[in-house]
From TrEMBL:
Transmembrane intervals: 45-69, 81-100, 112-136
Alphabetical UniProt keywords: Membrane, Transmembrane, Transmembrane helix
Any one Gene Ontology molecular-function term assigned to this protein's record: transmembrane transporter activity
The protein's name in its UniProt record: Folate transporter FolT
Length: 187
């Protein structure tokens, strides 16, 4: 039990800061897992770290960690291509969506699917398509059809993976124990 006398209201605790550091490390570790070939597309596991961060820490810390991960990944040489701040914005929006959709919420199949659908439509098909058009100077119709089918395939797989992750008993207990208080809602 923390001593509430010496804690400023709204201050980040040592446990929360440590948890954020571990979540960032998990996101980097997931980047190094090999991608799975689904035939139509390849699927990585970066979404798991983003969703886990949103579920544990909430939208605001998930946004900050998304930006930190994107920038550090590029700075440490783990990103492909040149740095483009639009992709950092996508990581921030993804953290917001996962945080709003999963933090302190019951992880039902519908909730997980709708959260992953929002990330897929807004971040992957929306923002990332726009950034790819700008960086690669390609017309939208040249890249959107392929991106659409790739993202529809990964939508289903990502939803199933997150459902089983968040409904695994040890993971559920861990999230309940270390989950951050909500910064957006008054109780």
């Amino acid at each position: 039990m923390e001593n509430q006398v010496y804690r400023r209201k709204g201050a980040v605790t040592t446990l929360q800061l440590t948890t954020l550091a571990i979540l960032l490390a998990i996101r980097f570790a997931l980047d190094y897992l090999p991608e799975i070939d689904l035939g139509v597309t390849k699927m990585g596991f970066g979404f798991v770290g983003a969703a886990l961060t949103g579920a544990i820490a909430g939208p605001i810390p998930a946004m900050i960690l998304g930006a930190a991960h994107d920038i550090l990944k590029f700075a440490l040489g783990g990103a492909k291509g040149v740095y483009f701040p639009g992709y950092t914005l996508t990581a921030i929006v993804g953290g917001l969506i996962y945080g709003l959709g999963l933090h302190r919420q019951t992880k039902t199949p519908l909730r997980i699917f709708l959260t992953v659908l929002a990330v897929t439509l807004i971040c992957n098909l929306g923002l990332n398509t726009l950034w790819t058009m700008m960086v690669q100077k390609k017309a939208i119709m040249a890249i959107l059809p392929v991106r659409f089918y790739k993202n529809m395939a990964s939508l289903v797989v990502n939803s199933v993976v997150l459902y089983y992750l968040f409904n695994n008993e040890p993971v559920k207990r861990l999230i309940e124990q270390i989950q951050f208080p909500s910064l957006l809602r008054k109780k």
